[in-house]
Task: structure prediction
Amino acid sequence: MADRYATFTHTAPGRFLTRRLGLPQPVPLRRWSPRHPAIEGPVLLLTAGDIPLPGLHESLTRTGLPPHSGPLGSRRPAAVVLDATGVRTVAALMDVHATLHPVVRSMAPCGRVVVLGAPLSPADHHQAAAQQALEGFVRSLGKELGGGRTAQLVRTPSASAAEGTLRFLLSPKSAYVSGQVVEVEELSEYADDLGETECAGGARGTAPAPDADTATPRGTVIQLPHPARPLAGRTALVTGAARGIGTAVAEVLARDGAHVVVLDVPSAEPDLCRVAERVGGTALPLDITADDAGERIAAALPDGLGVLVHNAGVTRDRRLANMAADRWSSVLDVNLGSVLRTTDFLLKSGTVRRGGRIVATASIAGLAGNAGQTNYAASKAGIVGFVRSLAPRALAEHGVTVNAVAPGFIETRMTAAVPLLIRQAGRRMNSLGQGGLPVDVAETTAWLATGAVNGQVIRVCGQSLLGA
Result:
């Protein structure tokens, strides 16, 4: 459904009225397109603290965004990367103010601020306090920037470990992601399993691991795939793919080179087949809550699976006092029970190959709660617990990463049915002042399907003012 308020604010009367009343003026977000695949403008690299992160300039250059360290003259930065990994004391936090204060006003519309922090030290509580302070700083900055600009904090042990995350956050693909804290691990011990490869020049990057048991021997030097098709040669399964966010995820994964198997209930088969035809994939009509769903998926994918996206979900809204037991159980079974059962089977059977990625769909409702959705919020909070518990074990035992996306207000048929005033509140109550699109969730899912992050729950909500 069209956002008529946002359209009105871009007319002369709308600009005048909203300014006088102090109402939000959402800026059209610059999302990825074939004509505009990257942010347009210079990237400014700044440093706070005593010791800069080694190799950061080179890592940014490899992402296709060679940074500037000096004055930009009259040019407005499209992105600012602040290396704050060396901030270890409260006094050093003054550097954060000193470096960013002069430049935040000059940033281009829809610009990006990425602050790089260090993992919190369990042995140095001064360092941990200073680094944790960066989280409050970034979340607040994201709510101040305006103009479609975003701010993120990336905690990383090295520059090379953060490359894939920087490539996503400093691109139009992250348009509706703001105020997030991403913790990047050094996954070098799983290099061959996760597709982390070493190129001739010694640079590390991300390449898709093979789906079948024909993995490259350890130590072999592999050339990285073309950045535009990072999933080439991999098979991806997307559940709940007949419409909405699931369809968008299928389209983006196919754009990135994957062969996509789309799954939905048999009653949605006509729509599902149309999606499969559009993305050049395969339709798999199947009730994901069936007891044998895992076995049937495995049988349909004899060569295995590189990416598993759990997107299927339903709502059956009622306040708890008015909620029948079947409304509770059906939502929990589709949104959470089926995820647990199928994941367990597909990992145990080896259908999800080493080097695979599992991405589940949580929700802001599961993080902040929502009146009338105790069932839905419980199921989506359960997804968060699933990710946090399974991620380290899945990586250690199967060489598979597990992450989740948590959408906020996304413009779908489901949110179009929400009452008008509640719908407007959902759109405006975030730092970007507008609802997101299914493609915003899909782009974040695609990043998690290729990146070397694990155990993360990334909120795709424009930095919702509740629970974000």
